[in-house]
Design goal:
3 domains; Helix Hairpins; Beta-Lactamase; 434 residues; alpha+beta; five-stranded mixed sheet; four-stranded antiparallel sheet; Heat Shock Protein 90; 55% helix
Length: 434
């Protein structure tokens, strides 16, 4: 899971927990807040009535001519005034909830009860407001509070995801440009990725330092292979000349002659290995130009002429079915080497009377050349190691495992992708994506 997703999930979980806790607190305290608000309204009405009280108002309320205020025909509130004995009762206002029957209708009211004296007489004032309105208000508050909480959660999630994406953008740029998109240490870009985060700066500088070491070691390795390979060719040539001169010696014993032939054969194999390593080293060091116009169809026809005798010796059914003559810029000699290595393997590891088919197609704006055979094939493990130097797909044959390593180096040099599909005892199919 990506760090950005983990951060977003962590922020989401923590915010959901905080919102749930705050929401629960608000919901549980909503009743108390609503009651306090309603009680304060009742107290304010009581104070207003007491301040504006006069004899006519008292007579009107006592005679029950006006038990409801003029504006409240729905019986949402009432005002009742009664006369009580002059015995100095408690004058503290009390608020409680109670069912009351007003003009034949029973409703639940929040009632303020207040005893007071006016002109030496004591009266009991009751002001009530129905709880139906309060419940409706609470439901509305709950609904809108839920909408606000959900909206707040969504907004915070989106902003957190956008901010984490902005915050981690330099990190992903470092991973892409400094690691994923680097196919060769010599092509590495040491320019720092712009960022204000110190941790990313440390990571960027550490990768740059590591790539400098890798590039140095990589260059030393390629230089070492080139130097050693070049230096070995001279003593090999000297030994070959000496062995050939020994073969010209008159009356040489047959057993000595056979040993000399075996030694020459070994030297020739060693020479092939060294030349292959030199070729790989030069390709990887970009010592070749890619300025020639190459026709794949013509190259394949030329290779067939070179290998026609070997194909006939194994009675192989060789077919070429190309839909078009694909042209591109590259190094003609290297492409010839790439193709002849693949086709040569298709002949070498094929069965007598087998088949080699060369076909093409266009896939996702890429030209694909496929070379298939009905040979011994390779296991999945061997396919994975097919491009490793000195590892071979068929250990029953003599060889050095450099053919496909050369193919891979030349393909990388020309930015050609290679795909190998193989199955034991059924054959191998190698596709080149231009």
């Amino acid at each position: 899971m990506k760090l950005q997703v983990k951060l977003s999930l962590y922020n989401a979980v923590t915010k959901i927990a905080i919102i749930l806790v705050l929401g629960a607190i608000i919901l549980f305290s909503l009743d108390k807040l609503a009651y306090n608000q309603l009680d304060n309204r009742l107290i304010k009405k009581k104070n207003k009535i007491i301040e504006n009280l006069n004899d006519d108002e008292i007579d009107s309320l006592l005679n029950k001519e006006q038990s409801f205020t003029d504006y409240n025909i729905l019986k949402e509130e009432f005002i009742v005034l009664t006369d009580i004995p002059d015995n100095l009762p408690d004058s503290t206002a009390k608020v409680f909830t109670e069912k009351r029957e007003i003009e034949g209708d029973i409703e639940v009211y929040r009632i303020l009860n207040y005893k007071f004296s006016y002109h030496t007489n004591w009266y009991n004032l009751e002001i009530g407001e129905t709880m139906t309105t309060l419940q409706s208000i609470k439901n509305s508050i709950r609904f809108y509070m839920l909408i606000v909480l959900v909206a707040a959660l969504l907004i915070t999630l989106v902003t957190d995801f956008a901010f984490s994406n902005f915050l981690l953008k330099p990190f992903y740029l470092i991973i892409d440009k400094k690691i994923n998109l680097v196919d060769d240490p010599s092509h590495y870009n040491y320019q720092n990725i712009p960022t204000s985060t110190e941790d990313f700066k440390i990571l960027d500088n550490s990768i740059n330092s590591l790539m400098r070491k890798i590039n140095t070691l990589f260059a030393l390795e390629k230089q070492f292979i080139a130097n050693v390979s070049h230096e070995l060719l001279t003593p090999i040539s000297i030994l070959s000349t000496r062995f050939e001169n020994m073969l010209n010696t008159p009356n040489i014993p047959v057993e000595h002659e056979n040993k000399i032939y075996a030694s020459l054969k070994t030297l020739n194999r060693l020479k092939v290995i060294i030349n292959s390593l030199l070729l790989i080293s030069k390709v990887e060091n970009n010592q070749y130009l890619k300025t020639e116009e190459i026709s794949l169809k013509q190259e394949i026809e030329d290779i067939y002429e070179d290998l026609e005798d070997r194909i006939a010796d194994k009675n192989i059914n060789y077919s070429t079915n190309l839909s078009k003559d694909f042209h591109f810029k590259g190094n003609k000699a290297l492409i010839h080497t790439l193709l002849i290595n693949i086709i040569n393997n298709a002949i070498k590891y094929n069965v007598d009377g087998g088949t080699i088919a060369i076909t093409d197609k266009t896939e996702l704006e890429k030209y694909v050349l496929t070379i298939s055979d009905t040979g011994s094939g390779m296991s999945k493990a061997l396919v994975e190691d097919a491009f490793d130097r000195f590892k071979r797909g068929n250990t029953d044959e003599n060889g050095f495992g450099l053919g496909l390593a050369i193919v891979q180096s030349i393909a990388r040099f020309h930015k050609i992708e290679i795909d190998i599909q193989s199955e034991e005892q059924k054959g191998t199919s190698i596709s080149l994506y231009f």
